[in-house]
Amino acid sequence: MSAAALEVREVSWAPRKSTQPVLHPTSFEVGAGRILGVVGPNGAGKSTLLRLLYRFQKPTTGTVRINGQDIWAMPAQVAARQVAAVLQEQAAAFGLSVREIVRLGRTPHRAHFAANGAEDEAVVARVLDRLNLNALTARDFGTLSGGERQRVMVARALAQEPQILILDEPTNHLDVRHQLEVVSLIQTLGLTIVVSLHDLNMAIGICDDILVLKDGHPQGFGPPQTLLTDTLVSRTFHVDARRRHLAPCGTAHFSFALPN
């Protein structure tokens, strides 16, 4: 797997027959191998933006380009080989095993209804090993814990051999240990990653750049060290935010309180 550059230019989205966009024109670039965090309060437009990036919805305006090529100018199967997504909602597995779920990631690489070949099975085996899932391969997906399910869904996405990985709130509903596992995994994948997160301090810790959204409008884009000021965070989240630097590493950390 290799990483790709992502370029988003003036993308917006509104439901049909609606004059009010859910996402207003938004632009940013993510260099190959970098991690972009998308943050903002509920209803900010984070999930809508991600759906545009993995080609679930077509932008009302603007373009999404991977290595300079518009994703809507390429066949859907080709796009699925370049962009994979792990969503908050996990579809019913209908009795499928972990291995069978991960095999689904090879679908974009198969011709029509062809069965998995030796190369496909080799990719699946590598991904299962990388995510420490070998002991669970025969387990029914529905019997797994939340953390285990999340690892399986990431494995399915990696089996697509994408260049860009989209993660929608990957730590949501996970306990602290499984949150740390997911964060550690994100940092070692070597792909271009766009991840939406509720935890601002987690975003600071793992992301190279941050995009802040509020009410469908971009509020700022850039490195977290310079972008995330007390004023911006307080205004975006309607809280009293105070940024501190933790000794001895100097890592930034926000504390929050309700405004007076």
From TrEMBL:
Classification via SMART domains: AAA
Name of one Pfam family that matches: ABC_tran
Family: Belongs to the ABC transporter superfamily.
Gene Ontology MF, one: ATP hydrolysis activity
InterPro entries: AAA+_ATPase, ABC_transporter-like_ATP-bd, ABC_transporter-like_CS, P-loop_NTPase
Lipid biosynthesis keyword on record: no
Domain ABC transporter: 6-240
Identification of the protein by name: Iron ABC transporter ATP-binding protein
Coiled-coil intervals, chain numbering: none
Keyword Secreted attributed: no
Record-linked CDD domains: ABC_Iron-Siderophores_B12_Hemin
Alphabetic keyword roster: ATP-binding, Nucleotide-binding, Transport
